Amino acid sequence: MTCLRIDQIYLYLEKEFSPSENKKIEEHLASCLKCKNALEERRILLQASESLTLWETPPDFIRQVMAQIFPEKVTARSWFITMAVGFSSIILMFLAFFLLSGQNLARLLINLSFSLLDLVRNISILFVKLFKLATLLVKIIVQFSRFLIEGFARLTTILSPEIQILLITLTLILSASLLYGMRRKFMTGEKA
Amino acid sequence: MDEDKELIEQTLKGEREAFEMIIRKYQQPLLNYIGRMVGERQLALDFTQEVFIKTYSSLHSYKPQYKFRAWLFKIASNFIIDYWRKKKIDAFSIDQYQGRDYNRPSLQIPDDEPSLVRKLEISQLRERIERALEKIPAYLRELFVWRHINEFSYEEIAEIKGLPVGTIKNRVFQAKELIRHVLEGKE
Q1: Would an 8 Å CB–CB cutoff place B170 in contact with chain A?
Q2: CATH of B2-86 among 1.10.1740.10, 3.40.50.1980, 2.40.440.10, 1.20.58.460
Q3: Does domain B95-183 have CATH number 1.10.10.10?
Q4: Cα gap A72→B18, rounded to integer Å
Q5: Which of A29, A57, A63 is best to mutate for the B interface (most B CBs within 10 A)?
Q6: Closest chain B residue to A10, measured at CA
Q7: Could you list the pLDDT tens digit for every one of the 192 residues in chain A?
Q8: What residues pair up with A5 in beta bridges, in sequence order?
Q9: Phi, psi at residue A101, to the nearest 5°?
Q10: What are the residue boundaries of the structural domains of chain A, listed by start?
Q11: Could you tell me the pTM of the whole model?
Q12: Where do the structural domains in chain B lie, given as residue ranges?
């Protein structure tokens, strides 16, 4: 028998051959080290593949699926019971508050809701005013920058390049000396 | 498998517990298949749930001459293909990979075959196989998972995919050799 093909090795390991075919393969394996090594390599690979860690479902998985398939229907009786329990709890709470503090809980809740309403209204007014102010500021900045850009554009068409360079240099020197002066003033302020 | 058919009959008669038993039996195999296909645990759990819901709603169209397990996994496979199609991932296109050499592993044992697998501890090897699985084409990964994690027979896989047994055997072989190549760092 010639050397085994790799697909034959896998099928042999997975016991997919007949007993007579298996016998031929085993006879060859007994005398061929190359095939024996290749078989061993794939035996380990298969063993590891067949013992990979299994993913587990959470304990309430079945309940979740069943709840999706068969959703619980709310009956008229259970609806009535829920409502009754809700109402009696509210009445009990009002009664307990009255007995303990001597005050009417309903009035206290109404007053509190009015105060909250006032607060919400004031905050909304403040936000609207702030928004208006911000839009006004943006408009002013846009207009001013447009004016500046147009001014510069006109100046460059009027003045010659030499005068433009001179003006830029002078502006830079003036800004630098201004900054230096401010720095000195601040430093003297710190020392004083 | 007869047990499955009995459970389906009982479910169709309105016995909820019968379908609960079906979920109990197949929740883990399905999760392990879907999990290896999509890679994320939460997404896999959501999909497993969706597959059971879909199975329940189409239970009336199940034909008893087919194996229930094969029918269930076909629903799951179609569900994943639909998901990828919606996400515009062409993971199941076989033509896409046919031109590439790594899907046609050599049938002959090379003279200088490296023995990387034998140098690793079994736990290390399992970890590397999991990572290699993510790198191989989805249509080969699916077959590998069915064969070696879900432990389906080649005939059962052929029934799910509607392909000849020989084709399935060949593709599962390709998947395994491709995994070996990834482990050796060839892909």
Answers
A1: yes
A2: 1.10.1740.10
A3: yes
A4: 18
A5: A57
A6: B173
A7: 688 999 999 999 999 999 999 999 999 999 999 999 999 999 999 999 999 999 999 999 999 999 999 887 767 777 788 888 888 888 888 888 888 877 787 888 888 999 999 999 999 999 999 999 999 999 999 999 999 888 878 877 888 888 888 888 998 999 999 999 988 887 776 555
A8: B108
A9: -110, -15
A10: 6-49, 104-158, 161-192
A11: 0.65
A12: 2-86, 95-183
Q: Under a CB-based contact definition with an 8 Å cutoff, are residues B68 and B48 in contact? A: no
Q: Are B136 and B180 in contact (CB under 8 A)?
A: no
Closest by alpha carbon to B7, among B69, B54, B53? Answer: B69
Whether residue B59 lies within 8 A of chain A, CB to CB, comes out as no
What letter represents residue A3's amino acid?
A: C
Euclidean distance between CA atoms B175 and B169, whole angstroms: 10
CA pair distance B154, B144, nearest whole angstrom: 11
Please answer whether residues A3 and B108 qualify as being in contact, where contact means their C-beta atoms are separated by less than 8 angstroms: yes
Alpha-carbon distance of A130 to A136, in angstroms, equals 10
Rg (C-alpha) for chain A, rounded Å, is 45
Is A52 within 8 Å of B122 (Cβ atoms)?
no
Q: Give the Cα separation of A44 and A13 in Å (integer).
A: 10
For residue A17, what is the DSSP state? S
CB B96 within 8 A of CB B144: no
Place of tokens 């892909």: B187
Does residue B154 belong to the interface with chain A, where contact is any CB pair within 8 Å?
A: yes
Q: For residue B127, how many other CB atoms are within 10 A of its CB?
A: 15
